[in-house]
Structure prediction request, 200 residues.
Amino acid sequence: MSFILGLTGSIATGKSTVSNIFKQAGVPVVDADVGAREVVKPGTEGLKRIEAAFGRDVISASGSLDRKALGKIVFQNKSELKKLNHILGDLIAIWIQSEKEKYIHQGAPLIVLDIPLLFESGYDQDVEKVMVVATTPSIQLERLMRRDQIDTQSAQQKIDAQQSITEKIMKADFVIDNNGSKENTQKQVLYWLEKQDVYK
Prediction:
């Protein structure tokens, strides 16, 4: 029986870092961001839906999704972001389920579902436990500005478009403190793996 762990966080809190630590430890990870890219490739139903909802301006000359143009629309308007998530939600869910089933059939003792909108999209109902990767709001803002090379206002807009990290911490079964070094974060994840005894 596979143990399904939901992994989430907020933008720039370090979820990808933790996801990579699991991968390096040999744990299969189903990454919703990969699924989100897969379902909007040229010629897919997902890309057709986006074009119908947001117009031709979000499609590049090569026929692929112009992520920057779409990002400008959805991060400045919560209702537009909600619309995008609604448009692609079922397609991403099918992809996640398919990947999860593949690893279950392979007999993986632990499977991590790496999903940014885990709580918002109800995936917390599909996992045994939820791990949240957290930082303080000030570190989150600073890292996002540095990562995306954007100003304070733009960074705060992106953060405000999501459920706050404080709310997610309250709903978590496990919290990984990512305020410090990558080495410190890695120690916490590996300790969790050892303590849970699900990957032995």
Notes: Residues 1-28+109-200 form a domain with the Rossmann fold fold (CATH 3.40.50.300). The radius of gyration is 17 Å. The longest strand covers residues 3-9. The chain has two domains: 1-28+109-200, 33-107.
